[in-house]
Design brief:
Layout (H helix, E strand, L loop, with lengths): L8 H16 L6 E4 L3 E3 L7 H16 L5 E3 H10 L22 E4 L1 H9 L2
Parallel strand pairs: 1-4, 2-3
Helix pairs in contact: 3-4
């Protein structure tokens, strides 16, 4: 997960970017930050390590789909549904984190799956 104190550069960069976006207040009405797990998708370019990781994660994706993976179509549905979701104020775990400004929504992987299932 994004964490500006992480020892891993990628997670640190994501955490710093989120923090900067929140503090800059570029989106005064609503800032939605999505934190999917490993994205499952087909790519045109070949990334050997990423492909190997996806193969290793396949059993987890089948047994516990929200634990370590997020299919790209699920993320897209969640992003499309979020502005209209009745779940924003009720079911999402992120809404318990009120150290955030009221206009900021951070969607963890489980929230993404909930939003994607919203009709």
């Amino acid at each position: 997960a994004a964490n500006k104190s992480s020892i891993f550069f990628y997670l640190q960069l994501k955490g710093e970017t989120e923090s900067d976006l929140i503090s800059l207040n570029l989106f005064p009405k609503c800032l939605a930050i999505y934190r999917p797990a490993t994205l499952l998708c087909s790519r045109v370019e070949s990334r050997l390590a990423e492909r190997a990781f996806q193969i290793l994660l396949k059993p987890f994706a089948y047994l516990a789909p929200t634990l370590l993976t997020t299919p790209i179509d699920i993320l897209a549905k969640a992003m499309a549904n979020a502005p209209f979701s009745s779940k924003l104020k009720t079911d999402l775990s992120v809404q318990q984190e009120r150290s955030l400004p009221k206009n900021v929504y951070i969607f963890e992987n489980s929230d993404i799956f909930l939003l994607a299932s919203d009709n």
